Amino acid sequence: MLRHCDNCLSDDALIGYLTAKLSKDYDLEEEIIINQWVNTHRTEMVKQSISVEGCISLLSKSVENLIPHSYVTKSQSKTFKKLKEDPPLNTAITIPGTRSFHYFKPLNTNEIEIRRTTDSPNPTLMFSFDSAMDWVCIQPSLNDYVAANYNGKWYFGLVKTVFHEEEDAEILFLHPPGPAASFYWPQREDLCIIPLEHIIVQLMHCNQVTLAECTTSKKSVSEKQKSVG
Q: Taking Cα atoms as reference points, which of 70, 82, 123, 86 lies closest to residue 101?
């Protein structure tokens, strides 16, 4: 994190230094052209006409703003992103299927409670770093139909993407949650990434159904079996 040093020149001392420096070549009322970044991303620069006195004031305010303000540079942001996407071996322990979650609460030095959102009523996952349990995960393929646990309930859904390295999958859910007599595709897609270990069963005998056949129209289980049989 970058921060203006508390031992740097005060505002008055900085103005005095800049005035003495620039007054050797310019009058304070003289107009000069300076290059100014449009934003902190430093992707676009514009030319600005300003008096020498105004330029000194602008520089002073810009430096003064660094004192209370901390920020990450663009190069630092790229480095952090690269480390997050591909962390060096033994530098981090990742939890499969948690990329879309927003609430993490350490319960002790070895356990974490995970919820999808801050206001979710029930934990979605309890993870123990000391757990010796070997999970036997179902390995679905693209466009497979599965039943999966999500937010304390189970849903039927269509596998859209499988992330083998992260051990999770992106699933398009049917509504409502089971058990129910009929299921349908909601008007607004219910798409979510879940851990593979939350997949209860892979529907081996269910042929693929195009979304066009099911969109916004309820179909009973028996009707569905007839339409894909």
A: 123
**Which tokens belong to 8?**
């740097």
pLDDT digits (tens, 9 = 90+) for 169-226: 999 999 998 888 888 999 888 999 988 888 888 876 554 443 333 333 333 333 433 3
Q: Which residues of 118-136 are buried (b: 16+ CB within 10 A; e: fewer)?
A: eeeeebbbebeeeeeeeee
* Whole-prediction pTM: 0.36
If 0-12 CB within 10 Å is exposed, 13-18 middle and 19+ buried, where does residue 75 land? exposed
Which pair of tokens denotes residue 50? 């300003």
Listed in sequence order, the residues at least 6 apart from 71 whose beta carbon sits closer than 8 Å to its beta carbon are 1, 2, 40
Amino acid (1-letter code) at residue 202? Q
Distance from the Cα of residue 17 to its chain's centroid: 45
Q: If DSSP states are collapsed to H, E and C, what string results for 184-224?
A: EECCCCCEEEEEHHHEEEECCCCCCCCHHHHECCCEEHHHH
The H or E element containing residue 92 is none
Rounded to whole angstroms, the Cα distance separating 210 from 153 reads 25
